[in-house]
Fold these 2 entries.
Entry 1:
Amino acid sequence: MNVAFTTKQRPPLVAPLVGLAIGYVVWRELALLPMAEASDVAQRVADACAALLPSSILLLVMIVAQMIGRNLAGAIDPVAGRDSRFLLINQRVISNTLEQMVVFAPALLALAARMPPYKMPQVVALALLFALARLVFWIGYLLGARLRAPGMAVTLAVNLVTLAAAVRVWI
């Protein structure tokens, strides 16, 4: 089977790498933010729950944008086939964000439960970077399908790192 890609079909290579490099720098900076040291497990898990709030808020903003978009476009019935480009993309972003959060949230909470207190800023930084990556993914996707790559690459990296770290601290 011969698969030849046109320039528009070829997966972007540079944008995800740039996104990963920027994401790492942002994570390092976010990890320097001051926070009270959480000495017990309950406080560390509570801090991780609070760190998930920006992602939850962003997901809610996406859902509200979808509702407003449907109302403005008169595309109230999502199966009628009258969705605009914005509605189609936004629905995919909402679905993908929810899918990513299902992997990320339990991994973050498991990591926080076993993380030494002095490393909790790194855990919180992962959650903040996740939210930022989802925002970059959303904006990029609205601008063009290939422009979602940096946000997707950072989201994947954050999910992989968080899940691997959580498994490591529990084994």
Entry 2:
Amino acid sequence: MNDRLFWENWSKKHKGLNAVVIGSRAIATYRNWLENLVFNSIKLDRKENILEIGCGNGRWIKKLEQRRFRNLVGIDFSKNLIKEAKKYCKARFYVMNSTKLKFKNKSFDVSLLLLVLPHTDWNVFKKTLEEAARVTKNKVIIMDEPYTKGSIWDMDDIVKILKDFRLVEIK
């Protein structure tokens, strides 16, 4: 099954912004802790134009909207997930392939790749990073869990793929 078909099928079974926070109480607590860590450690200006690549159902964009961010755009290649995101968020959403972003160079101040790394292969992720760098003026923020169940990544893989990019900070 290809990635797009997998996520289209997944989105039919998992509705709502908390669909990815399903599972045990421990998993939900961990995800909430992770979200707080992200939003407390990422320094973003509410006036910045922000693109989330792989936005899924809009969960992270909704969190930004709750913090009064307004210039938000989300892209995902799943039509169903974008449809779901539009139900809950005021941001602009587009069905789009992350390896061929249909935006002009440097059209966003910040691009976010949040919890998308384990869901793709090396070539797709590298091309996605190249596209994110192309459409972003200031910074591309990547946050992920490379050791989650089912992930094809480990830290050595991440270091290899990021060696071609200028890293400012790794936490």
